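Q: Convert this sequence to structure tokens.
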Amino acid sequence: MPEVTIEVSKDIKDLVGENGKAIYIETLKEVAFKRMDYSKRELEGLKKKIAFFDRKYNASYEEFLSDVPDTVQGHDDWIEWTYLINAAEDLSNRINKLSFLMGK
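A:
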């Protein structure tokens, strides 16, 4: 497991005292909870945009890739849809890591 080093001012170190490690762990968990909520909302937004393209082309992304329309709109949609798919995958991975940090 990687080790994390945190530099804090002397005042903060004096404030947390001997329980510093436990406080820092709890702080990280609290940040993870807040980040998780934000990330889940962001992922839902991406999924709605992906669903728009699913409906527009009446096809999944994979099906669309096999027959991208040879038009400017088709190309633009391919770029945006690809971005959305990749962003959703990255965000899902982040959510999984946050879940691990939160002990879930």
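The mean pLDDT is 86.
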